[in-house]
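In line with agreed milestones, work has continued on tokenised descriptions of protein folds. One protein thus recorded appears below exactly as we store it:

>
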Amino acid sequence: MLEVINDFLSGKVLIVLIVGLGSYFTIRSRFVQFRHFFHMFAVFRDSLKSSAGQLSSFQALMLSLAGRVGAGNIAGVGIAVTLGGPGAVFWMWVTALVGMSSSFFECSLGQLYKRCDAEGQFRGGPSYYIQHGLQKRWLGMIMAFLLLITFGFAFNGLQAHAVTHSLNNAFGFDTTYTGIGLAVLLGLVFIGGIKRIAKVADLLVPVKTLAYIGVTLYVIVLQFDQVPAMLTTIVKSAFGLDQAFGGLIGSAIVMGVKRGVFANEAGLGSAPNVAAVASVEHPVAQGVIQAFSVFLDTFLICTCTALLILLSGFYTPGFEGDGIALTQNSLAAVVGDWGRVFISVALSLFVFTSILYNYYLGENNLRFMVGENRKVLIGYRTLVLVLIFWGAIENLGTVFAFADITMTLLAFVNLIALFLLFKVGMRILRDYDDQRSAGIKVPVFDSSKFPDLDLDRKAWPANPSAPVAAPGKASAGVAAAQR
């Protein structure tokens, strides 16, 4: 029954929602992800600046990449290629292109409607912009519950299962002991709260990402003469034009979209939870940088994995096996047995940081539901650690099917909320664009311009410090902004 429901939701509903509404957001915003593409790099540079007592935009980016760059980039891509052929990679790209727009708006809104908690830290996400933007707390509660179940519980167990079984295959480690070790290490980070999670992500995310990209690019460079032909195969297979994969066009679309969403999470409502914790001058700045993280996740890391598999010569149409084994064997076919070890180590780092991200998503939405209740929070941490250990030693196939269903429901609720709040998103985007057009290098958000919105004035004060215009571009618009 779960499989039938899952096939309908993820095979039909999810495609229409992600691609359809993502395309709508893209067109209505005049292709915001393309217009601001090169600006993303400037915002990324500025994100390195920190604000006293708050998380920086760079730390929020590392947190989001901790979640986006996970098992889906290794195992998920392998599954997509296995079941959908090379054409699935093309549809992952399409999902990411439109997903950049969805991620831009959901993270901008997450910033806009964030709240300052009793400890002086920012919190936000879909539940917050649904409650304060749509004035529908009941729907925000549903969203919070779905995020808690999907990320806080189900995905953590699945991630633990992936890493412990990968280590067992590569090193022969007993899953019971690795499960205990994983739970202990994670517990030590959990008790430090969002600041400790951010510090660990700051350290591990760049290391795991650069190491993985470096090794996969090395393999791609070794066979660079085959890359143009393989890219042609990917595009032709996506439309059923390659004879070897002609019968997989339907599977290519479904698996490409499904695994693409699982990998980059654009539109699911997960990234706004961590995007909201950053201290930024304007909500749109965080939307820009989170769109950039979707690009990094799919176009760089997922593409590296896909080309690693397809160029290795190990993959053949009709391959039977799991995605992790396919990626491990593909790398080993080119560089030797150390390739299997490297994938296991990389997967361990990917999963560790992803679980930290998933845990925070669950905690953030639990706080939205019950408030600052310390006993409930301790109970949540304990249950998460138990599920991590359980997932490490048990096959959670049923849980995975259930998580796919709740993930699709998340996308449904979140994307409908984004559609209803789209005009608000466009208003703050125009405010940001107008300031940039006026020569202001770092646009500043003035909440007094939006008196009709239910905003936290501690997070977004009225009449903030005056923005600075670029030299030689002073104008009446700048003068007005400075007044």
